[in-house]
Amino acid sequence: MSGRRNESIPYFLGGISEKDQETGNHALVTSLMTRFDATRRRLSQSGNVHGEVATAISNFKRLKLCTNTRKRFGSVPGVDVGDIFFIWGEMGLVGLHSAPVGVELIGVEGSGENTPIAVSVVSSGENADKTDDPDSLIFTGFGGTTKFHDHQPSDQKLEGLNIPLEAALRKRSAVRVIRGMKVEKRTNGKIYVYDGIYIITSMWEEKGQNGFKVFKFKLVRQPHQKHAFGIWKSVQQWKNGLTTRPGLILEDLSNGAENLKVSVVNEVDEEKNGPALFTYVTSLKHAVINIQPLVDRCTCPQGSCASRSGNCACVQRNVGGLPCVENALVTRGPMVFECGGSCACSDKCKNKMIQTELNFSFEVFKTMHCGWGLRSWDPIRAGSFICEFAGDKIIEKGEEEDDYIFDTSMVYNSFKWNYEPELVGEDASNKVSEAIRVNLSLLISAKKSGNVARFMNHSCSPNVFWQPIAREQNGLWCIYIGFFAMKHIPPLTELTYDYGASPGVGKKICLCRSKTCCGLFG
Ligand SMILES: C[S@@+](CC[C@H](N)C(=O)[O-])C[C@H]1O[C@@H](n2cnc3c(N)ncnc32)[C@H](O)[C@@H]1O
């Protein structure tokens, strides 16, 4: 591991106090997850030779950037049932599951007993575990050939990690369950879903597939917890056409304009009409903002804009290189530059991040308090492109009430999202500005025509942010607004962004119900 360390971190002011390392809270968990993913994305963008995940984990460990290090039974401060993790190490960072194997254990101090007890398990969702039921899990023990692939098959024994599992059964103690989910699009890994507190209720032996003895542990989900894995199972069934989405009132709001259907769902009242009529369009009309002719559009051969050694004129306008890695924005900033219409590269160019089809199956759904809202059936990784704000570019707000305006001149809450240079071994002066270009003035109305973005409601604690994106079109500069995930977003979580407030104070009463709601917006 030491070979992977980034040794060039001279000073670092972003440390975490010993108290916060031991026990966290929501703000700390969210900020750690954001900082970690920003570090990982930057290391990936700069082609870190030791692997971006290993280096990011190593740097975070070395600087003690972690929380909830005190092992505990039951829930973990700041981590919610349903939270998702794209890398095993992220669970350790926030104290949900710190062990490198599927069982984390605790030695109970002062209990007079030396037997360790299991506090959390990660089910791979594969091997011999039975994982179909959202309220219980049959977890296979360790040893033999089942999980360690020995060459010599043998019976599992009551030793090693089977002991803390058996102790948790005896004590009827709380065990956190994390379910590993294979997701079609993520060929190189799993997503881990925190599914809440379970109790081990029984244990037995049976013959495994190879004829040798294996242990089975039955874990039962405790009542009154938010649905988590259950949601994933339901979505799978809707996607596979095995069951119909309850409350579905329209199959495809886009009427075929998008590559994926946009469902309309109402589970809160009897209204069956759906949102008021508008024309579904997939992009912004009349996006021209600056008529200066371009001199240096890209002349790259197909596929080469993304290459690190390449010198694509469009990529080079961005600080740090290709702005997007693995479909995620690396840093937000005053402006991001894409390849455009006259560039020599292909439609599939990796520097055309918002000129893509929808990556997620969205549904427009009736919310309890804010009319229609937007959410995704798929999990969304931090930084992912969600959609652009489609509509009509307008010069000024009209007399008529328009609830569907996007306005760059509003006052937006600041937030920190970009990586810290020190964490990737760069000079602190490399900090990428998070300010949107000051002179950018763009007003879009999605009242008459728009896409899924027009249904995103405002929140004072949003999970989505916007980013201006420039590209050349017919020799002119055009500016678009792209929405990106601020954090990892579990399926069926409402997607919201900060609408900003008019200079001075917002005019509308905010019903976002977040703990940090400031009461007004717009
Ligand atoms: C762009 S639309 C969003 C979609 C809208 N909810 C609908 O039903 O079509 C903006 C409008 O949604 C409502 N809205 C959005 N966020 C809200 C919030 N946090 N609190 C109250 N109303 C909100 C307000 O009526 C606002 O003018």
Short account of what is shown:
13% of the residues lie in helices and 24% in strands.
Q: Which CATH-level-2 architecture of the domain at 96-225?
A: Roll
Helix content: 10-25%
Low-confidence stretches: 1-7
CATH topology tier name of the domain at 96-225: PUA domain-like
Number of helical elements: 7
Mean pLDDT: 90
Which CATH first-tier class of the domain at 96-225 would you pick? Mainly Beta
What gyration radius follows from the Cα positions, in whole Å? 25 Å
What is the CATH homologous superfamily assignment of the domain at 96-225? SRA-YDG
In percent, how much strand structure appears in the residues?
15-25%
Ligand list: S-adenosylmethionine
The secondary structure category is alpha+beta
Characterize the biggest β-sheet. Answer: 7 strands, mixed
Number of strands: 28
Backbone shape: globular
N-end to C-end Cα span: 50 Å
Summarize the structure in words.
It is a single chain. This protein has 522 residues and is α+β, with helices and mostly antiparallel strands. The protein has a domain of 130 residues: SRA-YDG (PUA domain-like). It contains seven helices and 28 strands. The strands form eight sheets. Strands 1, 2, 3, 4, 5, 6 and 7 form a seven-stranded mixed sheet that branches. Strands 12, 15, 18, 24 and 25 form a five-stranded mixed sheet that branches. Helix 2 packs across helix 3. The longest helix has 20 residues. It is globular, with a radius of gyration of 25 Å. The N terminus is likely disordered. The structure holds S-adenosylmethionine. S-adenosylmethionine (SAM) binds next to strand 23. Keywords: Chromosome, Nucleus. InterPro entries: H3K9_HMTase_SUVAR3-9, Pre-SET_dom, PUA-like_sf, SET_dom, SET_dom_sf, SRA-YDG_sf, SRA_YDG. This is Inactive histone-lysine N-methyltransferase family member SUVH10. It is found in: Chromosome, Centromere; Nucleus. It comes from Camelina sativa (False flax).
